[in-house]
């Protein structure tokens, strides 16, 4: 009986790791809760149908211990490194806004995250460099240099920025602001660098 229990645990561990690693490589993130639940149900049902109740019981026990130590995708974060050029001789602050939805893109009231960066503290050679820790997801950034120190992006009467600004992927405005899909990028488990050139349109 003891030998059978050990073999069962080893088999379950091997099965889970093989399937989990496949999903990890494909999705670059750990298994979401719904997929995990489906995997557990599938294995348990298959063994239960074999009428091996002892094996099914041991499997459920093993899965319970395994799941208690599992970290789901919603809890994972990645490192976004933002490198800004064009601010070597500037003083003051840079503001970064993070968006994670096309519907919220460029809305001041729907920013997913924001960061105020002091240029003097973040200057590294000719670059202003900062890091953001964010959940694994798709994002787009807007960045502006607060030249007058009022904490707001100043624009002219038709909405064109009067202060140096930029967007992720260095998306360029053409008869209007860049679209979300021009600025969006995917943050995965590996650190990602967004090198952005600050520019002035006026």
From TrEMBL:
Q: Which UniProt keywords apply?
A: Membrane, Transmembrane, Transmembrane helix
One Pfam family from the record: DUF2141
Q: Looking at the record's lineage, which domain of life comes first?
A: Bacteria
Which parts pass through the membrane? 54-73
Name under which the protein is recorded: DUF2141 domain-containing protein
């Amino acid at each position: 009986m003891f030998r059978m229990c050990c073999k069962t645990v080893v088999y379950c561990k091997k099965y889970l790791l093989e399937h989990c690693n496949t999903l990890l490589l494909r999705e670059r993130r750990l298994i979401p809760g719904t997929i995990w639940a489906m995997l557990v149900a599938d294995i348990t049902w298959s063994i239960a149908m074999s009428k091996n109740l002892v094996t099914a019981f041991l499997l459920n026990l093993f899965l319970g211990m395994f799941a208690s130590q599992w970290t789901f995708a919603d809890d994972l974060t990645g490192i976004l490194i933002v490198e800004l050029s064009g601010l070597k001789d500037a003083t003051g602050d840079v503001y970064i806004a993070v968006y994670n939805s096309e519907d919220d893109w460029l809305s001041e009231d729907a920013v997913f995250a924001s960061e105020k960066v002091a240029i003097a503290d973040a200057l590294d050679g000719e670059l202003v460099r900062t890091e953001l820790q964010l959940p694994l997801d798709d994002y787009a950034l807007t960045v502006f240099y607060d030249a007058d120190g009022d904490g707001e992006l100043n624009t002219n009467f038709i909405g064109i920025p009067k202060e140096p600004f930029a967007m992720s992927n260095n998306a360029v405005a053409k008869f209007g602001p860049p679209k979300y899909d021009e600025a969006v990028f995917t943050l995965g488990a590996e650190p990602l660098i967004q090198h952005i050139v600050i520019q002035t349109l006026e």
